[in-house]
Design a protein that fits this description.
The complex is a heterodimer of chains A (206) and B (750).
Chain A lengths: L5 E7 L10 H11 L6 E7 L7 E6 L2 E6 L6 E6 L5 H4 L4 H21 L9 E10 L8 H18 L5 E5 L7 E7 L5 H9 L10
Antiparallel strand pairs in A: 1-5, 1-6, 2-3, 3-4, 4-5, 6-8, 7-8
Chain B lengths: L5 H4 L6 H18 L5 H9 L3 E2 L7 E3 L4 E3 L8 E3 L2 E2 L4 E5 L5 E3 H14 L3 E4 L5 E6 L4 H9 L13 E6 L14 H11 L12 E6 L14 E10 L2 E10 L11 E8 L3 H15 L10 H8 L1 H14 L5 H4 L27 H8 E3 L5 E6 L5 E3 H14 L3 E4 L5 E7 L3 H10 L14 E2 L13 H14 L6 H4 L3 E4 L13 E10 L2 E10 L4 H4 L4 E7 L3 H15 L6 H8 L1 H8 L41 H21 L3 H20 L10 H13 L12 H10 L8 H28 L3
Parallel strand pairs in B: 10-11, 11-12, 20-21, 21-22
Antiparallel strand pairs in B: 1-6, 2-3, 4-5, 6-9, 7-18, 8-9, 8-17, 12-13, 13-14, 15-16, 16-19, 18-19, 22-23, 23-24
Helix pairs in contact in B: 2-5, 4-12, 6-7, 7-9, 8-9, 20-21, 20-24, 21-22, 21-24, 22-23, 23-24
Classes of the chains: A alpha+beta (206), B alpha+beta (750).
Chain lengths: 206, 750
């Protein structure tokens, strides 16, 4: 799977607690204070669009959106390219998936800690949507198996000692996508720390 | 999960001409990365493929406190003057007459997801635009479009832009006849036409089926064609009233009638003649006065008409002028569902409102046109993909974009309207209020445009939300007023032809910049936009909603029975309106209320620091400069052929590169150059060799002789050494051509 175009979405626990509008000043602040280790460019307001990308933070290597697809608010990290020096070293699909997850979780952690949001933003740790945003990668059963193989070591770190389910959920728009659910609803901070932590344990299944 | 490339995946599925064109562009990208193409020429090259700049592409952005650099990884690499290579850009996609099929909609949706931000934006000229696109992705994007019959060629730049047409063409009861096949024919006739490549500015064309309605906006275009029939010798004859020299922009001009009736078989040659006159006499240096409207105004319509007819008389015949008329039904859309009548109630919730504002019965009994209202012209990839599916179910997979930034679905059986509404509502596409006060048009403004002064989209979203909140309580007399907003005076939001128009300006207050909008009143949308409004007062952005409320309340309270808004504004007088708005023009001190010092939807403190150099005007690049750049590309391709040990091809390509450079020089004289090698060589010999114009001050005729030698059979030696030498000679010949062109420029105005 050569494509660098990977989308990853984490969902809010209580989406009713927060308005999309609240994220506009937050993302502008992130640019102003360089809160993410990315070349951050601009903020785009798509609140007027039904179930759209909501409010987006445009970066050079990726887009971050408080996305409303399917009516579910969540943070969608959408990698476009890998020019950041830390990503030049990515050699494998598994490394890429880990890198994508790390970026998404980092943004979620920042949002949860954002003072202006007053603790109203909490992300679910037990559900992740992962998608290959590249139609050169067809959503075939073989591709799904391949993705699972690359994903397994990442999930083993992320969800040790718990039940993890990976279901194919793409196809209708010709993109390979999977829904990951876990019996462990740890917060994003814990998940983030597990990603780079040591002591890998075998997961019950994925 | 192996990924090939789109070039490989789509091999054999693209029309050969488009594949070649995209491959050429790809080579130009490679050459630019190697700094082998001048910035200005490359900028116009990409613009002519619809690859446009976007705000912050000069590598800096004001973050609300200060302007900071955006350190893109490409470092010094640029894609035009002051335009950073890595900076996100906009891809404009031409949709002639707004016509789309389901496969094209699905592809647009895919591309927006993979290369843009999953938003498909419909423009005020029936195009699609994708934002935040990286230039490296554009060749693949173009290939995928080409595979479904869409080209981005000439979507921007100083060329013929998208040919627009009334979206109701063929189904409207008011039209003289269906203008679709004519719009289609003219769009593809002028695409890449040699007589439409040397303009000083862009050239816009619109078709309308009738005089009364605005759908075609013929009067505000460089070339506007309104369908008309006349009876001659007892037979009805189709033709068009031909308007020229209309345009909005900072200085709007109403179009003038070139000919009251141009027979259908004459519209292509006459348009070609207009293009030739514009290319020959239009302003090239002062871009602010380079549109056709200025030439028509300068010459006067009588003289302009005389020149066009003179040009028409000497045009060499072209079979394409009338070939399309053998099959005018080629663009017809046939219904796929039987005609029907609207089912009895009960209907779904909201259906009655939607039906009242968004549905129009067609001239064909039993069928209707439904408007899909797009807020700010935007829809998501998921919505567009679903819409494609809906069209397949209801009308054979067809849709048309509109200049009001919506999409219409035609040939809907009236019996299917409740079902269609339910399907659209499921994806948020059944919003009522099409063409009403709520259906606000806005250009991209400060969101993405380098020229934007104020946030036109931010204001439009705010007004839209407020009007929607008054649902059902808006006085019927103002229900159908048009609000159109431009982020600057350039009028991409068409504010001049709105009932209430706005364009962005900036004012200083309390030592800070404050976003404002000029309120423009008196414009007329109907009758193909026959009257332009004038600015009455500049109001701070944050008080514009109050200004709208005050103007509409004033109209409701003071209007006479049946008095239109235009008539009312005329009677009331601009001075009175200005007085009405006077208190709203005041800006409180920064310490008192700082909210005035930022724009709608953007909490940063307002600044003009992000404005850049616009690309609407393109770069004025002569045909000779284009030709010389093209010859350089060809000599590069010859090198690639040589590396691949394809010696025959390398030799031929090197020769072609020299021919291209010679042809480019000949074009200095504004003469028609054909593509025959012998004739190019002969013309070059006569104009540049015999006159010694091409002679190098030191090397004399040496470089010209390279061309003659290759033309006289020298290129048949395809040994590796000979081909290598020929490529070197071609490179030197091109360098000499550049020198010659520069010398000519110093000797005489060209």
């Amino acid at each position: 799977m050569e494509s660098v175009k990977v989308d990853l979405k984490l969902f809010l626990q209580e989406p009713a607690e927060v308005e999309l509008e609240d994220f506009i000043p937050v993302f502008h602040d992130w640019i102003q204070h360089q809160r993410l280790d990315e070349l951050l460019i601009d903020v785009v307001d798509y609140r007027h669009v039904h179930d759209g990308p909501g409010v987006m933070l445009i970066a050079h290597d990726a887009h971050y959106a408080m996305d409303m697809a399917d009516g579910r608010m969540g943070l969608l990290y959408s990698r476009r390219r890998e020019t950041h020096p830390a990503r030049n070293a990515i050699q494998s699909v598994t490394e890429r998936l880990r890198s994508v997850l790390r970026c998404a979780l980092e943004a979620c952690r920042l949002l949860e800690a954002e003072p202006s949001l007053q603790g109203r933003v909490k992300f679910r740790g037990d559900e992740v949507l992962l998608r290959i945003n590249d139609r050169l990668v067809s959503p075939t059963p073989v591709a799904f198996d391949d993705l699972q193989t690359h994903l397994r070591p990442v999930l083993e770190r992320l969800y040790p000692d718990c039940q993890v389910d990976v279901q194919s959920c793409g196809g209708s728009d010709s993109r390979l996508a999977v829904k990951i659910t876990a019996s462990d609803d740890s917060n994003v901070g814990t998940l983030y720390s597990r990603l780079d932590g040591s002591g890998v344990r075998t997961a019950a299944g994925s | 999960m192996s990924a090939s490339s789109w070039k490989e995946r789509l091999k054999g599925r693209l029309p050969a001409a488009l594949e070649e064109e995209i491959t050429i562009f790809e080579t130009q990208l490679t050459l630019k990365r190697q700094d082998k193409i001048d910035d200005k020429i490359f900028a116009e090259t990409r613009l002519r493929r619809g690859v446009y700049g976007q705000r912050y592409d000069n590598g800096q952005r004001h973050d609300g406190v200060e302007t900071r650099p955006l350190n893109y990884p490409c470092e010094d690499l640029t894609k035009g003057p002051q335009t950073v290579w890595d900076a996100p850009g906009m891809q404009r996609i031409k949709i002639p007459f707004g016509g789309l099929n389901a496969e094209q909609m699905e592809t647009l949706a895919d591309l927006a997801e993979e290369y843009s931000d999953a938003i498909c934006h419909v423009t005020t000229r029936q195009d699609f635009q994708l934002h935040f696109v990286h230039i490296d992705d554009t060749p693949d994007l173009m290939r995928r479009l080409a595979a479904v019959g869409i080209t981005t060629q000439e979507a921007c730049g100083n060329v013929v832009r998208n040919v627009t047409a009334c979206p109701l063409a063929g189904v409207c009861s008011d039209e003289s006849f269906d203008v679709t096949p004519y719009a289609h024919a003219l769009a593809y006739f002028l695409l890449n036409h040699k007589d439409a490549q040397d303009f000083g500015r862009k050239f816009k064309i619109a078709f309308s089926g009738c005089t009364d309605h605005a759908c075609g906006l013929a009067n505000m275009h460089d070339l506007g064609l309104i369908a008309k029939t006349r009876v001659e010798n007892g037979q009805s004859q189709r033709g068009f009233t031909f308007y020229v020299g209309g345009g909005l922009g900072a200085v709007p001009h109403q179009a003038q009638v070139l000919d009251d009736f141009v027979a259908e078989e004459e519209i292509l040659p006459l348009a070609q003649a207009v293009c030739r006159v514009f290319a020959r006499l239009g302003e090239k240096k002062n871009r602010a006065r380079a549109r056709l409207k200025f030439l028509v105004a300068k010459l006067g319509i009588e003289e302009f008409r005389r020149l066009v007819l003179e040009e028409r008389a000497i045009l060499p015949p072209d079979e394409r002028w009338t070939l399309y008329m053998d099959n005018l039904s080629a663009t017809d859309e046939a219904p796929t569902r039987p005609a029907g009548t609207l089912p009895e109630e009960p209907h779904p919730d909201g259906f009655a409102d939607w039906m009242a504002s968004n549905v129009m019965f067609q001239s064909q009994p039993g069928y209707a046109v439904a408007t899909v209202c797009l807020p700010l012209g935007d829809l998501t990839s998921a919505q567009l993909r679903t819409l494609a599916g809906i069209t397949c179910r209801y009308n054979g997979g067809r849709a048309r974009t509109t200049v009001e930034q919506n999409i219409v679905l035609r040939w809907i059986s009236q019996a299917d309207l409740p079902g269609l509404y339910t399907d659209l509502a499921a994806v948020g596409l059944a919003q009522s209020g099409a063409s009403t006060l709520r259906d606000i048009t806005a250009c991209p403004g400060t969101d993405t445009c380098k020229l934007g002064i104020s946030s036109s989209r931010g204001l439009a979203a705010e007004l839209r939300q407020r009007v929607s909140a008054c649902n059902g309580q808006i006085d019927p007399s103002v229900q159908d007023l048009k609000i159109k907003i431009s982020g600057c005076f350039n009028s991409c939001g068409q504010h001049h032809v709105a009932d209430i128009g706005f364009y962005g300006v900036s004012r200083k207050s309390d030592n800070h910049a404050v976003p404002h909008f000029q309120v423009v009143l008196g414009g007329q949308w109907t009758e193909n936009a026959t009257a332009y409004g004038l600015a009455v007062a500049a109001v701070p952005s944050k008080r514009v909603p109050e200004a709208v409320e005050r103007i509409t309340d004033f109209y409701v309270a003071e209007r006479e029975p049946e008095e239109t808004f235009q008539a009312f504004i005329k009677r009331a007088g601009k001075a009175k309106i200005r007085t009405l708005l006077q208190d709203l023009t005041k800006v409180p001190a920064y310490a008192q209320d700082s909210s005035y010092y930022s724009d709608w939807g953007d909490p940063r403190e307002y600044s003009l620091g992000d404005m850049g150099v616009g690309e609407c005007a393109g770069e004025v690049v002569s045909l000779t400069e284009f030709g010389l750049a093209s010859s350089e590309r060809q000599v590069f391709e010859a090198q690639v052929d040589l590396d691949n040990r394809d010696f025959d091809k390398a030799s031929q390509t090197a020769f072609q590169a020299m021919l291209e450079a010679a042809k480019a020089l000949i074009q200095v004289y504004n003469i028609d150059v054909i593509n025959d090698a012998d004739q190019i060589v002969e013309e070059f010999r006569r104009r540049f060799y015999d006159t010694e114009l091409f002679h190098d001050p030191y090397a004399g005729a040496k470089f010209a002789n390279y061309l003659f030698h290759a033309a006289n059979g020298g290129r048949t030696d395809t040994s590796p050494a000979a081909v290598h030498r020929r490529i070197e000679e071609a490179q030197l010949f091109i360098e000499a051509a550049y020198s010659c062109y520069n010398r000519l420029g110093q000797r005489q105005p060209m």
